[in-house]
Amino acid sequence: MKTTEESNNDQISMDDDTMLSPVFGRGDIISFADEQYKVIENNGSSGVVCPVGETYYISMFYWEFEGEECKLVKKNPNPYGKGEYV
Question: Which of 4, 50, 58, 76 is the most buried (most CB within 10 A)?
Answer without folding.
Answer: 76
